[in-house]
Amino acid sequence: MAKTAKKFRYSKILAVALVVAVCYCVVQVIVLRSDYKTKLASYNSIITQCEKIEEKNAKLAEIEELLESGNNDEYIERIAREEFDYVMPGERVYIDKSVTK
Fold first, then answer.
1. For the chain, what is the domain count?
2. How far is residue 30 from each of residues 13, 18, 21, 25, 39, measured CA to CA in Å?
3. Range of 41's domain?
4. In a domain, 34, yes or no
5. Helix H or strand E segment including 76
6. How far is the C-alpha of 53 from the C-alpha of 47, rounded, in Å?
7. For 22-52, what is each residue's pLDDT tens digit?
8. Is residue 92 part of a domain?
């Protein structure tokens, strides 16, 4: 009887230790997943900012090139057309209503 009681106590301790180990692993997985999501969001934000910086650098290089070449009139005309929807006198503008902005 002493052996079975000892075995039972040993198996009970082992079961409790196993449950504690499994709970610890589950908590660690949850914490790591949370950290991963936070770092992934941060990484995506940084990538987005880098893309914006690259776009602005390209636009800046284009503007610097235009200033160096002396074709300011062409640049001003292009900006007026693209960003402010200006047209030249006597020019006809056709609007495609099937395309939405």
1. 1
2. 26, 18, 14, 9, 14
3. 2-84
4. yes
5. helix 72-84
6. 10
7. 999 999 999 999 999 999 999 999 999 999 9
8. no
